[in-house]
Design brief:
267 residues; alpha+beta; Methylamine Dehydrogenase, Chain H; four-stranded antiparallel sheet; 3 helices; extended; disordered C terminus
Length: 267
């Protein structure tokens, strides 16, 4: 097999470069001389995640499709911590992305099964207020394009960024209680009756009929006593300016063509 580099990352002070190779090795290089310093052995599949610690130049995190997450001391070429993402009844979950917190005390990973894994110091009580499964009910809704080739939500015929805030549902499409719906930006101060979605029965790919969120019980912002969104107003204003410029450019091009046609050619 011809070795190929799948990922590369500098450490915090740029003295070292770490490369992930498709033979499942991580290699630590001196960034000034190009000298190979260490081979880091531990992964059993390809690695597409390399994250440096936000302030400690010795620490590098790696995670791969084998479900392994390693914390390395790249100055010594040794493992500091190891975690294997085992999912009961489903084998391991490939880790797709990881990020450190700004203070370096925590890091979070996402895997191929849609899980968010949070590691670090302290208690987990702040994270216990959220349900285990969280999806927006619009996550897998089909999109269409209008005559101007702009993207619209197929069901509501609206641009996605102009739609009301979505509802939180579980993996089966069942909405969460209203206390969780307030976690969605834009729904913090809504009345309880505005946090109840419209439910309907839809057929799954297995032919099973389940109850899912199919729409939203929405009212105008004026009826809710909410101020219009500043961002939405800016987007509409920019779109209007773009349309005006497009119209002006087309008009000038048309007038220029007419003037050229009316100008006699020199012999």
């Amino acid at each position: 097999m011809k070795p190929k580099v799948t990922m590369i990352a500098w450490n915090r002070n740029d003295n070292y470069v770490v490369t992930a190779v498709n033979n499942h090795l991580l290699k630590v290089w001196n960034s000034c001389t190009g000298q190979l310093l260490h081979d880091l052995v531990g992964h059993a599949d390809e690695v597409f995640v390399l994250e440096t610690h936000p302030f400690d130049p010795r620490i590098m995190l790696s995670a791969g499709h084998d479900g392994n997450i390693f914390i390395w001391d790249i100055t010594k070429g040794t493992k500091t911590k190891h975690y294997f993402n085992m999912i009961e009844g489903q084998g391991h979950g490939a880790v797709f992305d990881c990020k450190f917190s700004p203070d370096g005390q925590h890091f979070a990973c996402t895997d191929s099964h849609g899980h968010l894994l949070i590691f670090g110091f302290g208690c987990s009580r702040p994270y216990e207020k959220i349900p285990d499964q969280m999806f927006f009910h619009t996550d897998y809704r089909p999109l269409i394009r209008d005559s101007n080739n702009y993207v619209l939500d197929e069901q509501t015929q609206q641009a996605p960024h102009l739609m009301p805030p979505p509802f939180l549902v579980d993996v089966d499409g069942n909405p969460h209680p209203t206390k969780y719906q307030r976690l969605v930006p834009g729904r913090e101060n809504c009345a309880d009756e505005h946090l109840i979605p419209q439910l309907g029965y839809v057929a799954t790919s297995d032919g099973e009929v389940v109850e899912q969120v199919i729409g939203q019980q929405t009212v105008d912002q004026d009826d809710q006593g909410l101020e219009p969104s500043i961002l939405d107003g800016m987007i509409r204003q920019l779109q209007l300016q773009q349309d005006q410029r497009t119209g002006a450019d087309q008009e000038s091009a048309s007038s220029g063509l007419q003037s050229r046609e009316g100008t006699p050619r020199r012999g």
